[in-house]
Write a structure and sequence with these properties.
This protein is low in regular secondary structure and about 525 residues long. Among the domains are: about 165-215, no CATH class; about 285-520, paralog of FGE (formylglycine-generating enzyme), CATH 3.90.1580. The chain contains six helices and 15 strands. It has a four-stranded mixed beta sheet with strand order 13-12-11-14. A three-stranded antiparallel beta sheet has the order 3-5-4, with no helix packed on it. A hairpin with an 8-residue loop joins β11 and β12 (about 485-490). α1 packs antiparallel against α2. The longest helix is centred in the N-terminal third of the chain and has 25 residues, at about 5-25. Mean pLDDT is about 80; it is low at about 1-85, about 325-330 and about 425-435.
Length: about 525
């Protein structure tokens, strides 16, 4: 307590004593002053009453506090211990006295009618002491520029602090830009990479995680990718149906209006995978004309895989060279017991008499692949009827929906099997030998009239049942000629049971027959 305050307190107490003394005197009964017997009017004082009043005043003065009798003062607080109420009691008194509907600021409010522990949170622009005084998402802060009183204000994404709904400093949440790898996040949208993984040191929040760097295996499109985990120069090229920017973003180097597309004469087939995407399949079996173009290019035998080192030629075992320019009744070389084909230019017929290695080499030279596993590579023989694994089976069955390429009920007049009518260029006449594969394309490169009914499991895909059985990149091993590989879909020699999409016959890799052909995928 300061000396001036001590003096004022003592003075006040002394005045209190004086007032009390005066009150005591006034409360006493004062009899009328007697008149002297002489009748002169002189007043004669009652000396006994005078003495009593003097004694009472002296007693009052004796009880007035002095400077020396004042309690000791805590000089650090400037207040007597007896004068200072407990802090909790003071806060409770302030809360109890708060009227949130008053027209003036009172009690524990931080502004009129709001803030503090009793009243509702304050709106933007109102005074505050802490962010708890403000209605979310507002925070309690000084104005930008650092000048002014604390007020409720909307957080900004450039104030250099984590506030509002941000998950880290000036990033994340619904209003700020996503955070960079290494910063705290609550969900994928908080991160530039769209990948938020759990982290034990994410600010102590059990639900928080850490933004991760983009990768080609995280299942989202991020970084420089043009689609999910592909394209952009850092990840593998994208399959057909995925987004692209330049041709190198696509496995087939064809980017059309921002989408990886199939080359001409290939059908688009959905992958049936959760990640989506498509792939391409030759719309008909590889023809004599197409294979002849490959053959006359004189491809190198030295580029074959080790399990094809036994293959010393790319010439089919029979029916070669093809007749591409004349109407010749011998355009198809039939094995014993099989009728020759009608007079024709055989450029549009499916090439046959080829082994697995010849088919594989042809597709590779075209920048394609022998149909195998969806996404590329060899398909396991055990997955021959798995539409999420086998390119060939998925394309034939329309994602496992159809038993035959055209539906689930067999029709002997739709595709070229043993029951195909001889009047349409195939099948078995009564007691007659089998006819050869029928022509797929005219010399002008268009589908042969009447033979487009045998459509596969995708629009514009033909002859996946019958005609010639097709080699698949699905083999039992990688030893060599003795490995068995699957041929699919049956041929003109097959009955109903052998013409299904699930038909897969294990055949020696070096087999060459009238019923064996192929098509490519991409």
């Amino acid at each position: 307590m300061t000396p001036l305050r001590r003096l004022a307190l003592v003075t006040g107490l002394m005045l209190t004593g004086v007032v009390a003394l005066a009150a005591g005197c006034l409360s006493s009964t004062t009899p009328p002053m007697p008149v002297s017997e002489g009748g002169s009017g002189d007043v004669s004082l009652d000396t006994s009453m005078h003495d009593a009043r003097k004694t009472h005043a002296d007693a009052a003065m004796d009880t007035t506090p002095t400077m020396d009798s004042m309690p000791d003062v805590d000089s650090s607080s400037g207040m007597d211990a007896m004068d200072a109420p407990p802090a909790d009691a003071a806060d409770a008194d302030a809360d109890a006295g708060t009227i949130c509907t008053a027209l003036t600021r009172n009690g524990s409010e931080t502004d009129i009618g709001c803030g503090g522990p009793v009243c509702p949170p304050c709106k933007v622009g109102k005074q505050c002491k802490a962010s708890t005084d403000c209605a979310s998402p507002a925070v309690c802060d000084i104005p930008e520029g650092g000048v002014g009183a604390l007020t409720c204000q909307l957080p900004t994404c450039h104030d250099g602090k984590k506030d509002g709904l941000e998950t880290d400093v000036d990033c994340g949440g619904p209003t700020c830009s996503p955070c960079n790898p290494g910063q705290v996040c609550l969900g994928p949208s908080d991160c530039t990479s769209l990948v938020c993984s759990a982290s034990a040191d994410a600010g102590g929040d059990a639900a928080a995680g850490t933004c991760q760097a983009p990768s080609c295996t995280d299942g989202v499109r991020n970084g420089t990718e043009t689609d999910i985990d592909c394209g952009g120069g850092t990840c593998p090229a994208c399959i057909v149906g995925k987004q692209c920017v330049v041709m190198t973003d696509c496995t087939d180097n064809i980017c059309t209006t921002g989408v990886c597309s199939c080359p001409p004469n290939m059908a688009i087939v959905p992958t049936n995978l959760p990640t989506g995407g498509d792939y391409c399949v030759d719309y008909v079996e590889v023809t004599y004309k197409d294979y002849n173009d490959f053959w006359i290019s004189n491809p190198s035998l030295l580029t074959q895989a080790s399990f094809c080192s036994w293959n010393t030629t790319f010439t089919p075992a029979n029916g070669w060279p093809p007749d591409l320019s004349t109407l010749d009744p011998d355009c198809y070389v039939a094995p014993p017991g099989i009728l020759p084909g009608p007079p024709c230019n055989n450029s549009g017929y499916p090439v046959n008499w080829v082994n697995w290695c010849q088919a594989y080499a042809y597709c590779a030279q075209q920048g394609k692949r022998l149909c195998g596993k969806i996404g590329g590579g060899t398909n396991a023989t055990a997955d021959s009827a798995n539409s999420m694994k086998s390119e060939w089976y998925n394309a034939c069955s329309a994602n496992s929906v159809n038993v035959y390429p055209y539906g689930s009920t067999y029709s002997g007049s739709t595709c070229n099997g043993v029951d195909f009518p001889s009047s349409m260029g195939g099948g078995i006449a009564p007691k007659a030998p089998l006819t050869p594969p029928y022509e797929e394309l005219t010399s002008g490169g268009t589908l042969t009239a009447g033979h487009d009914a045998c459509q596969g499991g995708a629009a514009g895909l033909y002859q996946m049942s019958g005609n010639v059985a097709e080699w698949e990149d699905s083999c039992s091993g990688t030893t060599g000629a003795s490995d068995t590989c699957l041929v699919r879909g049956g041929s003109f020699m097959s009955a109903a049971a052998g013409l299904t999409c699930a038909t897969a016959v294990a055949t020696a890799r070096n087999y060459q027959g009238a019923d064996s052909g192929f098509r490519c995928c991409l």
